[in-house]
Design goal:
heterodimer, A: about 180 residues, five-stranded mixed sheet, disordered N terminus, B: about 575 residues, alpha/beta, two-stranded parallel ribbon, 21 helices, about 15% strand
Chain lengths: ~180, ~575
């Protein structure tokens, strides 16, 4: 499969000629090769929506980038501190794992797990969870079950308290 | 242009131009000036060791006394460049040894330096004076022993944050008794204990010693002995600064510090025992530079010290200083030019440390000469950034790292576009910018429009689309170094701005959306660029055209492709067997 791209050498070139549609996403074979290459599970065919972008662009975005394929965002080599500074770190350089189960309303008995210690705010948690289930973060509501067994809406208590109390997560469809 | 200007006069005039940029400009005026510059330029700076090769260098500059070479890209500091990528100095040393026997100075940054290279340096240059290795690796203390034993005229041995295979501290004892020319010794990154008596004798017989930075193994109790031998020191780095409090040790140390009338810079302070900090009280008002970034102690102790540093120009400290400490800085250190605040616990989510945007705003308000900032924190707001930009219109370097990726303005939950936009709009002299937090394509529009003097830009977890990258590449006229990680930038902007890449030193993109096919195309169409695809996941030769590459490093070069690349690096579009002769 040959890429049909032309190269413009003027600094004020319009890049509208480089249409992502030129990458033939309709080609099923091509998609499978991508999966092989990137060791990914093929995703079910459904509409993906990433930050409101249109279907074609967002499809390629998710297929091509493992980070957005439903796998967790791992903060590899971040924040940018060099080796001599890392050695100083009191708390250690690897965040400890805290896995909890998460279920998406309407998804049958499917359960996934997420490492809460990779997140530091509700915003990034919802972002990751929404991606995990192929939803827009605007379309979901995050709820959690606390130590007493009660289901609560996430976001009302400070992050630290949430982290101490949370036992399980559930994403509800946002109907409002 | 017929010049009735004798060449000797021109040469004399040019000798006053020391900056590389000026010399490079001069050499472009006309052939005579090019030739004159060629013959008399003896300080050479190579910003990317693969942009040129030793043979080209030697052919152009016949008489070189000092050379500076940089190897790996900046993101190598954060382990983003895999082991074995390249940046080997040995081939350079071989050629330099042959061409410039009177070479005096070698400065290397992010290069792989072997013991063989150091041995060759030690034996090839009779008048060798200065060796500075910054963030280098690949050598052991045996290499240092060779330098110590053979370089009779050595003045500077400066190891800055190098990864050294530390076999023993015995290397220091290789400096012969007749060796008295030492002016600067920085061994802070070494781990092994050196013989203290050898160190003391070395210091005692080095009357010109101005800089001494010890490693952690030199105990606090022995500092007085050393400082008594070198009261002329200007720049001193302690070893581990901890010991049980003893009044005699304390007063002895306070005494010797007071005697150091020329002391302007202090660093070290590992494992600090706060009770010993006040020994430096008497020298605080002399200090222009203070590095407390290894001093893991609480805000009150740090604040007491900085409150006495009325002439401080450069402060490097941990976030333990907190907002209150920075407030004191803003009131006491009116001459401050550079502020660096490192995180004590960057990998933990919540910390007790009260260091927020308020500290930085306070310093920006109180210190009107502030021009360089590197600040790690956990929250930021657009209003704070706008305030900082208004307080410090003369900022040249602004690097902000909000620990959580994509963190929004914590007050409004909006992106930090307007805040950073304000920085680039108000700070017209900004040459270096590092951004973090939640950022959309909008911020790149601001950067492309206003940051006309920007030389280096670092981006992570930012932007929405190729438009962001396009704004930067098409708008920032002076941009030379661009490093990007984890951004949704793909082929469009890169290919549309291909010609810009030849006017830059380098572009790094990792965990973005640049496809293998685009890299191939760029490599084929742009012979003046090396397009290196770095991919450790799969066989780098069998990545499909449309798949995104893990990392791509693009740099301009007159040297053609390199042949020392490992198997996970592929230099795109160049026939592996062809030898480029671009002389």
């Amino acid at each position: 499969m040959e890429l049909e791209l032309t190269l413009s050498l003027s600094s004020s070139s319009c890049f509208s000629q480089f249409d992502l549609n030129n990458y033939s996403h309709g080609n099923v074979e091509a998609k499978d090769n991508v999966y092989e290459c990137l060791n990914m599970q093929p995703l079910k065919k459904r509409k993906y929506c990433v930050n409101g972008a249109n279907d074609v662009e967002s499809t390629s975005f998710i297929f091509m980038n493992p980070k957005f394929s439903g796998q967790e965002t791992s903060l590899v080599r971040w924040p940018p501190v060099n080796k001599s500074r890392k050695k100083l770190c009191v708390g250690g350089t690897k965040p400890k794992s805290m896995f909890v189960k998460v279920h998406m309303e309407g998804d049958g008995i499917a359960r996934k797990k997420i490492n809460l210690n990779l997140h530091r705010s509700y915003r990034t948690l919802v972002h990751t969870l929404a991606n995990m289930f192929g939803k827009c973060k605007e379309d979901v509501k995050l709820t959690y079950q606390d130590k007493e067994g009660d289901w609560l809406l996430a976001g009302d208590v400070p992050w630290g308290s949430f982290m101490e109390a949370v036992k399980r997560l559930k994403l509800l469809k946002n109907t409002c | 242009m017929t010049s009735s200007f004798p060449e000797e006069v021109l040469e004399h005039v040019l000798s006053f131009l020391t900056s590389q940029t000026d010399r490079n400009a001069v050499s472009l005026v006309c052939k005579t000036w090019y030739e004159t510059d060629r013959w008399c330029r003896n300080r050479i700076f190579v910003g990317n060791c693969y942009a040129v090769n030793p043979r080209i260098l030697i052919r152009r500059f016949p008489d070189v006394k000092s050379i500076e070479l940089k190897g790996k890209p900046h993101f190598a500091d954060f382990n983003l460049v895999p082991e074995g990528w390249g940046g080997y100095v040995y081939p350079w040393v071989v050629e330099l040894a042959r061409a410039y026997p009177s070479l005096e100075e070698i400065r290397l940054k992010r290069m792989v330096v072997t013991d063989e290279s150091l041995e060759m340096v030690a034996k090839s240059f009779n008048n060798f004076k200065v060796l500075v290795l910054s963030s280098c690796e690949g050598f052991s203390t045996d290499g240092l022993a060779a330098i110590a034993a053979n370089c009779r005229n050595l003045r500077v041995l400066d190891l800055r944050e190098c990864e050294v295979e530390d076999l023993s501290g015995h290397w220091l004892s290789h400096f012969p008794d007749s060796f008295t020319s030492l002016e600067s010794l920085n061994m802070a990154c070494l781990v092994s204990e050196v013989s203290f008596s050898a160190l003391e004798r070395l210091v005692a017989r080095s009357p010109n010693l101005k800089t001494l930075k010890l490693n952690r193994t030199v105990p606090l109790e022995k500092l007085s002995t050393l400082l008594k031998r070198a009261p002329q020191l200007v720049d001193f780095g302690t070893g581990a600064y901890s010991a049980e409090f003893r009044p005699d040790v304390y007063s002895s140390l306070a005494g010797v510090f007071s005697a150091c009338k020329n002391l302007k810079s202090l660093s070290g302070f590992w494992d600090v025992t706060p009770a010993y900090l006040p020994v430096i009280n008497n020298v605080c008002s002399q200090l222009t530079s203070l590095n407390l970034s290894y001093a893991t102690t609480q805000s009150p102790d740090l604040t007491k010290i900085v409150s006495q540093c009325c002439n401080l120009q450069r402060l490097v400290v941990l976030d333990y200083i907190e907002d209150t400490g920075l407030n004191t800085v803003s009131l006491s250190c009116k001459d401050l030019r550079e502020l660096v605040v490192f995180p004590s616990d960057p990998f933990i989510g919540d910390v007790d440390v009260q260091l927020t945007e308020h500290g930085l705003v306070a310093v920006s308000e109180g210190c009107s000469k502030l021009h360089s900032i590197l600040y790690f924190c956990r929250q930021m707001s657009n209003s704070a950034l706008i305030q900082i930009s208004k307080n410090c219109p003369n900022l040249t370097c602004f690097r902000l790292c909000i620990i959580e990726p994509r963190a929004p303005d914590y007050q409004t939950l909006e992106p930090l576009d307007t805040g950073f936009g304000s920085i680039v709009q108000n700070c017209q002299h900004l040459t270096r910018l590092s951004m973090s937090g939640l950022l959309t394509d909008r911020v790149f529009e601001y950067i492309g429009t206003y940051a006309k003097n920007l030389d280096m830009l670092s981006i992570a977890f930012a932007g929405d689309s190729d438009l962001g990258l396009h704004y930067v590449l098409s708008g920032c006229d002076r941009l030379r170094k661009l490093e990007i990680r984890d951004c949704p930038f793909g082929d469009k902007a890169l290919l549309a701005n291909a010609s810009k890449l030849e006017r830059m030193r380098s572009l790094w993109m990792s965990s973005c959306l640049v496809s293998f096919g685009a890299c191939k195309l760029l490599g084929r169409k742009m012979p003046g660029l090396n397009v290196e695809v770095i991919d450790e996941r799969e066989n780098v030769n069998s990545i499909p055209e449309y798949a995104p590459v893990e990392k791509v490093y693009i740099y301009r070069t007159v040297s053609g492709q390199r042949f020392d690349a490992p198997d996970f690096v592929r230099i795109m579009g160049k026939d592996k067997d062809a030898v480029y002769n671009l002389s």
